[in-house]
From TrEMBL:
Pfam families: PBP_like_2 (PF12849). Keywords: Signal, Transport. Residues 27-81 are annotated as: Disordered. Residues 81-336 form the PBP domain. This is Phosphate binding protein. Residues 46-72 have a biased composition (Gly residues). SUPFAM superfamilies: Periplasmic binding protein-like II. NCBIfam families: ptsS_2. It comes from Halomicrobium mukohataei (strain ATCC 700874 / DSM 12286 / JCM 9738 / NCIMB 13541). GO terms for molecular function: phosphate ion binding.
Amino acid sequence: MTRESARLSDLVSRRKFILTSGAVGAAGLAGCTSGSEQGDAESDGGDGGNGGDGGDSGDGGDSGDGGDGGSGDDSNVDRASLSGDVRISGSSTVYPVAEEVSRLWNEEYGDGVGFNITPDGSGGGFENVFIPGDSDINNASRPIKDEELQRCRDNGIEPVEFYVAQDALTVVVNNDADFIDEISLEDLKTIWSPDTAPEMWSDVNSDWPDEPLDLYGPASTSGTYDYFIEAVIGETESDQPIRSDFEGTEEDNLIAQGVSGNEYAFGYLPFAYYTNNPDSVKALGLVEGGNDPVEPSLEGAQSGNYPLARPLFFYANMNKLQEKTHLQEFIRFYVNEADEDYIASDVGYVPSSDQMVEDNLANLEAGIAGDYEFSR
């Protein structure tokens, strides 16, 4: 099965640096004022308070002279003079994008602004960090849920939505699993649905081996978990939305590691984490209806031809956005950077389109003015 080997070999080294740092929790960025306080990646955001929320100054001297040389946006703020902290919680899928953009900020503007970034899962980040008001930004690999939006508003928070990139959610098996190169969405549902919950590969397809299915996937706090249920499984007769007998984790690299260590393992994970492990796991082509199998790729995610293409987001606390100039400027930098080629080459997602950047900037200005109201 073709796996874009030439492209992937060029990307692995840089992505491994970006993605594997997520497995130990906090982003170890230049200027990070709280990196030493981080625990492991399964921490659910209890360290959110060190992101510094109230009155992170750094705002007094940022009337600036346009000294943000070469940023590609139209800000006239002297970003090098800004100081304060930015606390980012949420999705492990979006984590590598946030980490890379934060690194680029520090590289370009110095270490006056520190970043505390944790991969808590989309839902875990919302519930444990963002909704209580402890983070400025929550990454999400699916749109905010209605109940999360309501809890935000109950706490006086209006979440401002920003589109980040497009992902191709990737189904993987062990490299030695030579009996399978593709799978239908119907069989994918059969494997993961609590209504069927097959124990053996042969229970799904008689041509497959009579060996146990060992399953790996994101934990229930993950937005990827939520997206997979919605896109693949749908409604079930069970009290639970997906079978529970799988190894769940918020560390996507551990999914790849688990699958690579077991010949009969099966899992799913974000495309960027697959391309970080191209020699240890095999991606399956997906068959939808009577169509030919489609392999996961950036091109397939961008065109929508890949069945499990999905958008990625982050949400900003509008109150904090109005109060903190350094947060405003970081988000302005972020959304302008999100359409750059390195989002594909260094991270492994499809960058934002020019139109999405314009929409994001409009949301940013509305949030700064206090006029933004989330709607679907």
